[in-house]
Amino acid sequence: MYKECFRVVGAWWADALNVNDEKGKIEAEVKKRMNYGGWWTKYLDFKMNGESMNEYDLLIRVFWITSKPKSGVLASAGPVLRHPGSQRPIIGNVNVYSFGDRNWTGKSALTTASDTMIHEFGHIISFSSWSSLQEQHIKLDTVLKKWIWTGPIVLQRAMKYYNCPTLAGVPLQTRNGRVGAHWDEDFLGVEMMTPSTMIGEHTGASVMTLALCEDTGWYKADYSMAENFTFKKNIGCNNWNKCETTCKRGTSGITPDYQAWGYCSSQGACGKYSAYSNRKCHNEKSWSSSYLIAGASYDSDCSIVQGTFPAYKNNYGQILDKISAATNCTSNNSEYNVVLKFSGSADVTVKCRGAGNVDFTAPENNKGHVSCEDPIKFCKARFEATEGCPGRCGYFGRCANQGKTLQMAQMETFNRSKMLGVGRKITIMSQSEVIKPWQCWCYNTTNFSTQADGSCPVDTTPVTPATPTPPPVTPATPTPPPVTPAAPAPAPAPVTPATPTPGTPAGQTPTPVTPANPAPVTPGTGDDDDCEDDGGDDNEF
User: What is the pLDDT of residue 337?
Assistant: First the structure.
């Protein structure tokens, strides 16, 4: 799973960004630091298999952590070495913790692991060292009492996203008065670069994240890679402190997207229901067989539905108060259907035309009811929030703003460069008129879908994360020699990005990153704060 994960992550960032400086300086800088020995040897000793480091824009080493981190930390990352001219990161490291490994399981393993690693790579690429290297783009907002990003590209994109032409900046994580290395959760929820996410909860990269990378001056962003993200979209200038969702701590309920049963967790100053890992509607293995007797199903159109659902067979069983059921909405969202599927019997369809209880009769004349939601609210949250992406994006790809329909009439093949991974060939197809703005970016091809419905091919390869038991090692606490940043180079010429898949070590044909031969490392190396992704309460009991 890790080999596939880092292949996907490297390809995603390679598609999202091009670098604006020359990569010919990397090898000389690495060799200079390697002469220091010690700490530098540990983090810069890449095995390049005869290839030059100058073929790459960014090299990343990934380490398996043997020491026990603080509870709930999935991974951490930061830059190790920067370009001598532009100060763009050219070497970084990612630390994978056992807690993350244990939670990347089931059908969604590749998606959730990739979400985390795209986030961690983001810390290496742009989300770090703002006080020292991006001081001109941050300031303390005395009204919000938060640091904000004021870079012109972020500001332009954010004004449109929030529908607020007087926006002063986008809030950043603020800790004890100091700027952190993430977006602020109150304003961006679980966007890809906010500090925490719940296990199994998909996070998307907003236009603001790509714009911040561009504001640094190091990259040119491709906004077709901006992903499905709607938190506080079009909220206007006067509703910044309005919570999208609220709940009472300690209670359980349906998550905002209706795809899981969850528990109330804090989201900055607000609260929302975050998914129990064993109560997601797509994860059939975590539900007992009783739910199937009650009419449950776990396909891409599933939703968590409340009510009374008789799970009786031969007059024996129980009444369930919630199940995962197939759902679909009418074109105008005026009503939706809850379809209960019974083995050996006809489906039972319950029509929800408004909020309230609707009765139904299950096999063996068992009576129950569905607690319907307001159809407009339900349909918008469950289906429109995906911006029209097909359901199979969930396990086999990412919903991005590609904006074009691709035809196979004319094709041109060329070699992809090597940012974060292995050089590969890409097929560019002729482009016709825009059919719909959103489309799946697929894991198996690391490219936009070419299928008629825009979905990704079903990957039948099982994703089973390893759970290694590394030998006990006491990691050293290295102290790197001081590095004096060079003055930025004037107007560097743009180049084609490099695309390495990170490894241990990385190269043009890097060794896959697997926990089989773990290399311990002290968390928080480089010049970035550790990224902590709070796993939260994992299961419903």
Answer: 97
In a domain, 500, yes or no: yes
Inside any domain, residue 301 = yes
Asked if residue 227 lies in contact with residue 399, where contact means CB atoms within 8 angstroms, the answer is yes
Check pLDDT > 90 for residue 151.
Answer: yes
Q: Beta strands 356-362 and 219-221: pairing type?
A: unpaired
pLDDT of residue 165: 94
Distances (CA, A) of 227 to 386, 437, 438, 471: 10, 11, 9, 40
Ranking 72-81, 292-301, 433-442 by mean pLDDT, the lowest is 433-442
Query: CA 288 to CA 268: how far, in whole Å?
Result: 34
- Average pLDDT over the chain, rounded to whole? 76
pLDDT of residue 437: 67
Strand duo 397-400 + 439-442: pairing:
antiparallel
Burial class (CB within 10 angstroms; exposed 0-12, middle 13-18, buried 19+) of 251? exposed
Please indicate, yes or no, whether residues 345 and 446 belong to a single structural domain of this protein: no
Burial 418-442, CB ≥16 within 10 A → b, else e = bbbbbbbeeeebeeeeeeeebbbbb
Residue 426 pairs in a beta bridge with 414
Residue 420 has pLDDT above 80, yes or no: no
Of 341, 361, 382, the position where a domain reaches its end is: 382
Residue 309: both structure tokens together: 């659902």
Residue 294: which pLDDT band, with cuts at 50, 70 and 90?
Answer: very high
Cα–Cα dist 183/194, whole Å: 5
- Contact predicate 510/502, CB 8 Å: yes
Residues 330 and 211 grouped into a single domain: no
Residue scoring higher pLDDT (192 or 513): 192
Assigned domain for 251 exists = no
The pTM for the full model equals 0.69
Q: How many residues does the chain have?
A: 541
The mean pLDDT of 273-281, rounded to a whole number, is: 84
- Do residues 171 and 130 share a domain? yes
Helix (H, G, I), strand (E, B) or coil at 51: coil
Q: How far is CA 382 from CA 183, 259, 364, 387, in A?
A: 25, 7, 31, 10
Token pair for 457: 């091919």
CB 176 within 8 Å of CB 115: no
Question: Which residue range(s) make up the domain with 66?
Answer: 1-240+392-541
Same domain, 466 and 497: yes
Alpha-carbon distance 433 to 19, whole Å? 29
Distances (CA, A) of 470 to 3, 6, 65, 117, 535: 18, 21, 9, 21, 22
Chain segment 45-54, per-residue pLDDT in tens: 888 888 888 8
Contacts of 494 (CB under 8 A, 6+ apart): 18, 19, 20, 220
Tell the residue number behind the tokens 């050089």, with chain if given. Answer: 423
- Region of poorest pLDDT, from 16-30, 32-46, 488-502: 488-502
Tens of pLDDT, residues 97-140: 877 777 776 667 788 888 889 999 999 999 999 999 999 999 99
> How many domains does the chain fold into?
2
> For the residues of 310-321, what is the DSSP string, one character each?
EEEETTEEEEEE
